[in-house]
Write a structure and sequence with these properties.
The protein is about 35% helix and about 15% strand. With about 230 residues, the chain is an alpha+beta fold. Helix 1 crosses helix 5, helix 2 runs antiparallel to helix 4 and helix 4 packs antiparallel against helix 5. It comes from Bosea psychrotolerans. This is DUF1353 domain-containing protein.
């Protein structure tokens, strides 16, 4: 599967920052962001090979009764509570060349990446006319909000001791999501359809994590090509 438009921001932003310099926005300061709270479980299923970034093709699956949830400290802020739905992801779309550096694993800040992926998914589907409640509740989240939120989510992982502190990686990734390139991807039309999870992958998710899709399948696709590769519980 090709990289989804909403995930290309990290790949492009980090490449600009690391190789060209000065390509990232100076308007968002990671050090000034406030941490929030994570709860629930993150479950990721491998479903196929990836492209030139990330580490393959994966499916984020919300665990029934204990889905991954991020709460911003400011409860009145846009996106004050974010609970991602089932979706394709490649973790952080970190260029292969950058993955050699500490802090730039495509899964190093996985919960934060899932939150940001979901914001882009909601934005694209709302822009394409979706009236789904799971997207509408994030309708007031702006592009600038999305950049702040991933920074807050990363800070939350650091301050809670879930990841090792790395100011360079955290700052650079936070800045990458605020680039003009990422802003243009935020406003792409027609991207909702490409993020729709295929029936066969929904069946895989339902087989591995029963009750996760809300869909009943008469015939479940064999799971030989899929497996849980990550499960993190807060």
């Amino acid at each position: 599967m090709e990289i989804q438009p909403r995930r290309a921001w990290v790949m492009i932003g980090l490449a600009c920052a690391a190789l060209l310099g000065g390509c990232v926005s100076a308007g968002l300061n990671y050090d000034e962001l406030r941490s929030g709270t994570f709860s629930g479980s993150l479950v990721v299923i491998w479903v196929g090979e990836g492209g030139t970034s990330g580490d393959g093709r994966f499916l984020y699956v919300p665990e029934p009764g204990n889905p991954l949830t991020f709460r911003r400290r400011n409860v009145s802020a846009p996106g004050s509570l974010i609970r991602p739905g089932i979706m394709y992801t490649d973790g952080g779309s970190i260029p292969k060349i950058a993955q050699a550096f500490r802090g730039f694993s495509p899964w190093g800040y996985a919960p934060a990446y899932m939150v940001h992926d979901w914001l882009f998914a909601a934005r694209h589907c709302l822009r394409d006319g979706s009236n789904d409640a799971k997207y509408r509740r994030l309708g007031d989240v702006t592009f600038d909000d999305s950049a702040k939120i991933i920074g807050e989510a990363i800070r939350t992982l650091v301050e809670s001791g879930r990841v090792t502190e790395n100011d360079t990686a955290a700052s650079l990734i936070t800045a990458a999501v605020g680039t003009d390139v990422a802003r243009r991807l935020w406003d792409v039309d027609g991207a909702c359809a490409s993020s729709t999870v295929r029936a066969e992958d929904l069946a895989l998710a339902e087989r591995i994590v029963p009750g996760s899709t809300g869909v009943s399948f008469r015939e479940i696709v064999p799971t030989s090509r899929a497996k849980i590769v990550s499960r993190v519980t807060f």
